[in-house]
Design goal:
2 domains, D-Maltodextrin-Binding Protein, domain 2, five-stranded mixed β-sheet, elongated, 27% strand, 35% helix, 12 strands, alpha/beta
Length: 245
Protein backbone atom coordinates (compact mmCIF):
# COMPACT_ATOMS: atom_id res chain seq x y z
CA UNK A 1 0.00 0.00 0.00
CA UNK A 2 2.82 2.36 0.89
CA UNK A 3 4.56 1.65 -2.40
CA UNK A 4 1.37 2.45 -4.31
CA UNK A 5 0.98 5.73 -2.39
CA UNK A 6 4.58 6.63 -3.12
CA UNK A 7 4.03 5.87 -6.79
CA UNK A 8 0.92 8.08 -6.87
CA UNK A 9 2.81 10.92 -5.20
CA UNK A 10 5.65 10.56 -7.70
CA UNK A 11 3.17 10.67 -10.57
CA UNK A 12 1.53 13.79 -9.15
CA UNK A 13 4.88 15.53 -8.75
CA UNK A 14 5.80 14.60 -12.33
CA UNK A 15 2.54 16.01 -13.65
CA UNK A 16 3.03 19.19 -11.63
CA UNK A 17 6.50 19.58 -13.10
CA UNK A 18 5.07 19.28 -16.63
CA UNK A 19 2.26 21.71 -15.80
CA UNK A 20 4.71 24.33 -14.54
CA UNK A 21 7.57 24.65 -17.04
CA UNK A 22 10.91 26.12 -16.18
CA UNK A 23 11.25 29.89 -16.38
CA UNK A 24 13.04 30.75 -19.61
CA UNK A 25 15.91 33.21 -19.46
CA UNK A 26 15.69 35.32 -22.62
CA UNK A 27 18.41 37.77 -23.64
CA UNK A 28 18.85 40.09 -26.58
CA UNK A 29 21.00 43.01 -27.67
CA UNK A 30 20.53 46.62 -28.77
CA UNK A 31 19.79 46.25 -32.48
CA UNK A 32 17.04 48.73 -33.44
CA UNK A 33 14.37 48.34 -34.56
CA UNK A 34 14.41 44.57 -33.98
CA UNK A 35 15.38 44.66 -30.28
CA UNK A 36 16.32 47.74 -28.32
CA UNK A 37 16.36 49.67 -25.08
CA UNK A 38 13.42 52.04 -24.83
CA UNK A 39 15.34 54.32 -22.47
CA UNK A 40 18.54 54.64 -24.50
CA UNK A 41 20.58 52.52 -22.10
CA UNK A 42 23.24 50.03 -23.15
CA UNK A 43 21.76 47.33 -20.87
CA UNK A 44 18.26 46.75 -19.50
CA UNK A 45 17.16 44.59 -16.55
CA UNK A 46 13.40 45.26 -16.77
CA UNK A 47 11.20 43.95 -19.57
CA UNK A 48 9.14 47.14 -19.76
CA UNK A 49 12.25 48.98 -20.97
CA UNK A 50 12.90 46.58 -23.86
CA UNK A 51 11.06 46.85 -27.16
CA UNK A 52 11.34 46.37 -30.90
CA UNK A 53 9.85 44.26 -33.65
CA UNK A 54 11.49 40.95 -32.70
CA UNK A 55 10.88 41.61 -29.00
CA UNK A 56 7.14 41.98 -29.58
CA UNK A 57 7.04 38.77 -31.59
CA UNK A 58 8.86 36.87 -28.82
CA UNK A 59 6.60 38.30 -26.10
CA UNK A 60 3.44 37.33 -27.98
CA UNK A 61 4.81 33.85 -28.67
CA UNK A 62 5.69 33.12 -25.03
CA UNK A 63 2.42 34.56 -23.75
CA UNK A 64 0.48 32.26 -26.07
CA UNK A 65 2.58 29.29 -24.97
CA UNK A 66 2.08 30.29 -21.31
CA UNK A 67 5.78 29.74 -20.68
CA UNK A 68 7.15 31.94 -17.87
CA UNK A 69 10.20 33.95 -18.84
CA UNK A 70 12.54 36.76 -17.85
CA UNK A 71 13.84 39.15 -20.49
CA UNK A 72 17.04 41.18 -20.30
CA UNK A 73 19.09 43.23 -22.74
CA UNK A 74 22.86 42.75 -22.80
CA UNK A 75 25.70 43.03 -25.28
CA UNK A 76 25.88 40.37 -27.97
CA UNK A 77 28.92 38.47 -26.70
CA UNK A 78 27.44 38.06 -23.22
CA UNK A 79 24.05 36.96 -24.55
CA UNK A 80 25.48 34.47 -27.03
CA UNK A 81 27.71 32.77 -24.45
CA UNK A 82 25.19 32.92 -21.57
CA UNK A 83 22.65 30.90 -23.54
CA UNK A 84 25.05 28.04 -24.26
CA UNK A 85 25.69 27.28 -20.56
CA UNK A 86 22.28 25.93 -19.43
CA UNK A 87 18.89 24.76 -20.75
CA UNK A 88 15.86 27.06 -20.87
CA UNK A 89 18.01 29.94 -22.02
CA UNK A 90 17.58 31.66 -25.39
CA UNK A 91 18.93 34.60 -27.37
CA UNK A 92 17.24 36.55 -30.17
CA UNK A 93 17.53 37.68 -32.94
CA UNK A 94 20.23 35.35 -34.01
CA UNK A 95 21.18 34.74 -37.61
CA UNK A 96 21.13 31.02 -38.42
CA UNK A 97 24.43 30.07 -40.00
CA UNK A 98 25.97 26.71 -40.85
CA UNK A 99 28.48 27.08 -38.01
CA UNK A 100 25.85 28.01 -35.43
CA UNK A 101 23.19 25.48 -36.40
CA UNK A 102 24.42 22.56 -34.23
CA UNK A 103 25.03 24.79 -31.22
CA UNK A 104 21.37 25.64 -30.55
CA UNK A 105 17.76 24.63 -31.11
CA UNK A 106 15.97 27.07 -33.36
CA UNK A 107 12.61 28.83 -33.42
CA UNK A 108 11.82 30.99 -36.40
CA UNK A 109 12.39 32.85 -38.48
CA UNK A 110 11.04 35.70 -36.39
CA UNK A 111 12.25 38.52 -38.67
CA UNK A 112 13.94 39.21 -41.99
CA UNK A 113 17.21 41.10 -41.74
CA UNK A 114 18.21 41.44 -45.38
CA UNK A 115 21.22 43.39 -46.67
CA UNK A 116 20.17 46.20 -49.00
CA UNK A 117 21.63 49.33 -50.54
CA UNK A 118 19.56 52.50 -50.09
CA UNK A 119 19.76 55.57 -52.31
CA UNK A 120 17.79 58.80 -52.76
CA UNK A 121 14.52 58.31 -54.61
CA UNK A 122 15.57 60.59 -57.48
CA UNK A 123 18.92 58.84 -57.97
CA UNK A 124 19.67 57.00 -61.22
CA UNK A 125 22.16 54.38 -60.10
CA UNK A 126 22.25 51.31 -62.32
CA UNK A 127 23.19 48.63 -59.78
CA UNK A 128 22.76 45.16 -61.31
CA UNK A 129 25.31 43.43 -59.06
CA UNK A 130 27.18 44.39 -55.92
CA UNK A 131 30.32 44.99 -57.97
CA UNK A 132 28.49 47.85 -59.71
CA UNK A 133 28.52 49.71 -56.37
CA UNK A 134 32.32 49.72 -56.07
CA UNK A 135 32.83 53.26 -57.42
CA UNK A 136 30.47 54.78 -54.85
CA UNK A 137 30.81 55.94 -51.23
CA UNK A 138 28.69 53.61 -49.10
CA UNK A 139 27.64 54.59 -45.60
CA UNK A 140 27.40 51.91 -42.94
CA UNK A 141 27.18 51.13 -39.24
CA UNK A 142 30.59 50.79 -37.56
CA UNK A 143 31.60 47.18 -36.77
CA UNK A 144 28.40 45.82 -38.31
CA UNK A 145 28.84 42.62 -40.34
CA UNK A 146 27.50 44.31 -43.48
CA UNK A 147 29.95 47.20 -43.28
CA UNK A 148 32.79 44.84 -42.47
CA UNK A 149 31.92 42.77 -45.54
CA UNK A 150 32.22 45.87 -47.73
CA UNK A 151 35.57 46.79 -46.21
CA UNK A 152 36.90 43.26 -46.60
CA UNK A 153 35.99 43.29 -50.28
CA UNK A 154 37.47 46.62 -51.29
CA UNK A 155 34.40 48.88 -51.26
CA UNK A 156 34.47 52.54 -50.24
CA UNK A 157 32.82 52.10 -46.84
CA UNK A 158 32.25 55.18 -44.70
CA UNK A 159 31.19 53.99 -41.25
CA UNK A 160 29.63 55.73 -38.26
CA UNK A 161 28.96 54.50 -34.73
CA UNK A 162 25.38 55.84 -35.05
CA UNK A 163 23.58 54.27 -38.01
CA UNK A 164 20.71 56.71 -37.53
CA UNK A 165 22.84 59.49 -39.05
CA UNK A 166 23.25 57.77 -42.40
CA UNK A 167 19.87 58.76 -43.93
CA UNK A 168 20.79 62.44 -43.40
CA UNK A 169 24.21 61.80 -44.94
CA UNK A 170 22.45 60.45 -48.02
CA UNK A 171 20.31 63.58 -48.29
CA UNK A 172 23.37 65.82 -47.80
CA UNK A 173 25.28 63.87 -50.50
CA UNK A 174 28.02 62.95 -48.03
CA UNK A 175 27.57 59.35 -49.16
CA UNK A 176 26.13 57.93 -52.37
CA UNK A 177 24.59 54.75 -50.95
CA UNK A 178 23.80 53.33 -47.54
CA UNK A 179 23.98 49.66 -46.57
CA UNK A 180 21.28 48.60 -44.10
CA UNK A 181 18.27 46.28 -43.95
CA UNK A 182 14.82 47.10 -45.28
CA UNK A 183 13.36 47.27 -41.76
CA UNK A 184 16.25 49.20 -40.20
CA UNK A 185 16.62 51.55 -43.15
CA UNK A 186 13.05 52.77 -43.13
CA UNK A 187 13.02 52.90 -39.32
CA UNK A 188 16.07 55.18 -39.09
CA UNK A 189 14.92 57.31 -42.01
CA UNK A 190 11.52 57.87 -40.39
CA UNK A 191 13.18 58.81 -37.09
CA UNK A 192 15.27 61.38 -38.97
CA UNK A 193 12.20 62.78 -40.76
CA UNK A 194 13.46 61.59 -44.16
CA UNK A 195 11.05 60.04 -46.65
CA UNK A 196 12.85 60.29 -49.99
CA UNK A 197 15.03 57.19 -49.86
CA UNK A 198 14.52 53.78 -51.45
CA UNK A 199 16.21 50.36 -51.51
CA UNK A 200 17.80 49.85 -54.92
CA UNK A 201 19.66 46.55 -54.58
CA UNK A 202 19.32 43.54 -52.27
CA UNK A 203 22.68 41.97 -51.52
CA UNK A 204 21.40 38.97 -49.60
CA UNK A 205 18.54 37.71 -47.48
CA UNK A 206 19.10 36.80 -43.85
CA UNK A 207 16.61 35.62 -41.25
CA UNK A 208 16.71 36.16 -37.50
CA UNK A 209 15.76 33.42 -35.04
CA UNK A 210 15.28 32.61 -31.39
CA UNK A 211 18.25 30.36 -30.53
CA UNK A 212 17.64 28.12 -27.53
CA UNK A 213 20.19 26.18 -25.52
CA UNK A 214 20.50 22.77 -27.20
CA UNK A 215 19.56 20.92 -23.98
CA UNK A 216 16.13 22.57 -23.88
CA UNK A 217 13.52 19.79 -24.35
CA UNK A 218 12.14 19.48 -27.88
CA UNK A 219 8.53 19.75 -26.69
CA UNK A 220 9.06 23.42 -25.85
CA UNK A 221 10.91 24.18 -29.08
CA UNK A 222 8.23 22.45 -31.17
CA UNK A 223 5.39 24.25 -29.41
CA UNK A 224 7.03 27.65 -29.90
CA UNK A 225 7.56 26.94 -33.60
CA UNK A 226 3.94 25.88 -33.95
CA UNK A 227 2.70 29.04 -32.22
CA UNK A 228 4.94 31.20 -34.42
CA UNK A 229 3.49 29.51 -37.51
CA UNK A 230 -0.03 30.32 -36.29
CA UNK A 231 0.93 33.93 -35.63
CA UNK A 232 2.30 34.25 -39.17
CA UNK A 233 -0.82 32.73 -40.72
CA UNK A 234 -3.07 35.00 -38.64
CA UNK A 235 -1.20 38.09 -39.87
CA UNK A 236 0.10 38.95 -36.39
CA UNK A 237 3.72 39.15 -37.57
CA UNK A 238 2.79 41.58 -40.35
CA UNK A 239 0.81 43.73 -37.90
CA UNK A 240 3.81 44.01 -35.58
CA UNK A 241 6.20 44.68 -38.48
CA UNK A 242 3.99 47.53 -39.74
CA UNK A 243 4.69 49.50 -36.55
CA UNK A 244 8.35 49.75 -37.48
CA UNK A 245 8.10 50.73 -41.15
Amino acid sequence: MKSISAWVLLLLFSQAALAEPETFQLVTENFPPFNMSLTGNEFEHDEENIGGFSTEVIQEMFQRAQYPYRLKLRNWNFAYNFVQRAPYRAVFGTELTEARQPLFKWVGPIADNDWVLFALEDSNFNIKSLEDAKPYRIGGYKDDSRTQYLKDNGFKASELSDDGLNPKRLVDKQIDLWISSTVSGYYYARKAGITNIKPIFKIRSANLYLALNKDTPDEYVNKLNSILKDMREEGVIDEIAAKYR
